[in-house]
UniProtKB/TrEMBL annotation:
Keywords, alphabetical: DNA integration, DNA recombination
Alphabetical list of SUPFAM superfamilies matching this protein: DNA breaking-rejoining enzymes
Compositional bias per record (Basic and acidic residues), positions renumbered to this chain: 355-366
Protein name per the record: Site-specific recombinase XerD
Region annotation (Disordered) ranges: 347-366
Organism name: Hoeflea phototrophica (strain DSM 17068 / NCIMB 14078 / DFL-43)
Superkingdom, taxonomy of origin: Bacteria
Length: 366
């Protein structure tokens, strides 16, 4: 076994031989997976050195080594590091560990896109998890590692993404939905609709992040960006009566016991259970084509309709660019059109009294 932990150490060591030369040391990795990737990269470098000593031309970086190096230098530091690791592991399995990075062609990338689509994921997911990931690895190999890389026409491999439909919950749908939501889940759903927070932001909300005196809630969203959501009167009325049985705000009472909880225990709401319950309740309530994320859209459209303040909405939602918030501009535009149509429907008098016309004519002559 070439990867192991020495007594008293938290990191893995390596020890392998390439063409009679022994290489050993510390990977600096605390997990076996990271250590194995480090070892793969070191072996690749050792083989390249061996070929150079033998006067053989270098053959470039292999997929396994490229993926490992990308993870160590960039991927593990991403806010969504788990997703990055999953994506690059898929790329490694698809192309094979020993495939040379420089040998990839446009045909290979096309085949990769087709294989990812066969998994039944959306075009946007294919673009993000496969094409963009591979492009990031190849770009880093070229710019940071001075490795030979293939010339890929990336724009030809990006799939057309369907524009997101901004779905708003109607008043009738809202009544039907909340009539069926279970305790614990109902408060969480209402919170999202009153604050514009994403599912992960709702699930991770802790009591310590609510400043009752300052009047705001500290939310950490995408990219670990922190923003302050105002603690409106409606949010205060929703949150204040909730039980403080857990560090996390949104909890529910266990209805069926498990190895982790017994029946009647108070436990935080978890993502899988929330997704399942929300989908089931929407179906029973007849709320068609509505996702949890549409609660955020509902908040945004209602806020903009009530205030017209695009800048304030940007800050509440945590958008880094006002252009992203401008997706909701259709709300004010649609409302303006309805008002104009209503005004046009009002009969405008056309018979002006003779005296007024004579007076107007006199003024005109003067």
């Amino acid at each position: 076994m070439s990867i192991w932990k020495r007594p008293g150490q938290d990191t893995f060591s390596y020890d392998f031989t390439v063409r009679g030369h022994r290489y050993s040391g510390n990977t600096g990795a605390t997990s076996r997976r990271e250590a194995e990737r480090t070892e793969a990269r070191l072996k690749d470098e050792a083989r390249a050195e061996a070929r150079a000593r033998a006067g053989q031309p270098a053959r470039g970086l292999r997929i396994a080594a490229a993926v490992s190096r990308y993870w160590l230098e960039a991927g593990q530091h991403h806010a969504n590091a788990d997703s990055t690791l999953h994506d690059i592991a898929w790329l490694e399995r698809h192309f094979g560990k020993n495939r040379l990075l420089a040998s990839l062609t446009n045909q290979d990338v096309s085949a990769m896109v087709a294989a990812r689509r066969a998994d039944g994921v959306s075009p946007a997911t294919v673009n993000r998890t496969a094409t963009a990931r591979l492009r990031a690895i190849i770009t880093r190999a070229r710019d940071a590692w001075d490795e030979p890389v293939p010339r890929i026409a990336w724009k030809n491999h990006l799939l057309r993404e369907r524009q997101e439909v901004l779905r708003e919950l109607s008043a009738e749908e809202e009544t039907a939905l909340f009539a069926r939501l279970a305790p614990g889940y109902a408060e969480l759903v209402r919170f999202s609709m009153l604050s514009g927070c994403r599912m992960a932001e709702c699930l991770g909300l802790e009591w310590r992040l609510i400043d009752w005196h300052g009047g705001y809630i500290v939310i950490t969203g995408k990219g670990d960006k922190t923003r302050h959501v105002p603690l409106s009167d409606a949010l205060r009325a929703l949150l204040w009566p909730l039980p403080r049985a857990h560090a996390r705000v949104f909890t529910h009472r266990i209805r069926r016991g498990s190895i982790h909880h017994k029946r009647g225990d108070i436990a935080p709401v978890e993502e899988e259970a929330l997704n399942s319950h929300f989908a089931r309740v929407c179906k029973k309530a007849g709320v068609i084509g509505f996702r949890f994320h549409d609660l955020r859209h509902t908040f945004a459209t209602r806020f903009l309709r009530a205030t017209g303040d695009m800048r304030a909405l940007q800050l509440i939602l945590g958008h880094s660019s006002i252009e992203t918030t401008m997706r909701y501009a259709h709300v004010t535009a649609a409302d303006a059109k309805r008002r104009m149509d209503a005004m046009s429907a009002t009969k405008i008098p056309t018979n002006i009294p003779t005296g007024d016309r004579d007076e107007a004519a006199t003024v005109s002559k003067d």
